[in-house]
Amino acid sequence: MDCIFCKMAARAIKVDPVVETDRVMVVKDINPQAPVHLLVIPKTHYASILECKDMGVLGEMMEAAVTSAKKLGVADPGFRLSINTNDEGGQTVFHLHMHLLAGRPLSGRLG
Ligand code: 5GP
Ligand code: ZN
């Protein structure tokens, strides 16, 4: 298995999820771009959102993001969700994931 997020899902490496369901896990980003920077990761491997036709798992990712935002106290102040896709979208890990950024003003900045 060559994929870092598959290894996390299989517990081949140590993880301490903020939120976890049967199909999704939420972990802290190793290189945070904001005081709160989480990754919402489906346990099934999809190289990007272009490969994922499962609206159920995408819905669960959204639900896990909202649950995590509430759990970490950033739902009310606000947060941003983004899914980087392919090279020009800034994707570097080719296992579908959604970023949750919060804890500093993000308005007007998409990068
Ligand atoms: P992308 O650039 O593909 O949208 O996002 C990949 C993210 O995964 C980056 O923000 C990067 O810091 C994070 N990342 C890469 N390797 C690891 C890891 O081993 N553990 C965690 N928690 N995050 C990682
Ligand atoms: Zn994977």
Which regions contain 5 or more consecutive residues with pLDDT less than 50?
none
Task: Report the total helices.
Answer: 2
The fraction of residues assigned to DSSP E strands is 15-25%
How many beta strands in the DSSP annotation? Answer: 5
Tertiary shape: globular
CATH architecture: 2-Layer Sandwich
Bound molecules: guanosine-5'-monophosphate, zinc ion
According to CATH, what is the class? Alpha Beta
Question: For the residues shown, what is the average pLDDT?
Answer: 96
Q: Can you tell me the CATH topology? A: HIT family, subunit A
Widest beta sheet: strand line-up = 1-2-3-5-4
> What is the makeup of the main sheet?
5 strands, antiparallel
Could you give the distance between the termini?
31 Å
Which percent range fits the helix content?
10-25%
CATH homologous superfamily label: HIT-like
What is the structural class? alpha+beta
- Assembly type of the chains comes to single chain
Rg, alpha carbons: 13 Å
Order of helices and strands: HEEEHEE
How many structural units, i.e. domains? 1
Verbal overview:
- It is a single chain.
- The protein has helices spanning 4-9, 55-71, and strands at residues 19-20, 24-28, 36-42, 79-82, 98-102.
- The chain is α+β, with helices and mostly antiparallel strands and 111 residues long.
- The chain has one domain (4-102): HIT family, subunit A (2-Layer Sandwich), CATH 3.30.428.10.
- A five-stranded antiparallel beta sheet has the order 1-2-3-5-4, covered by helices on one side.
- Zinc ion (ZN) is lined by residues 3, 5-6, 45, 95.
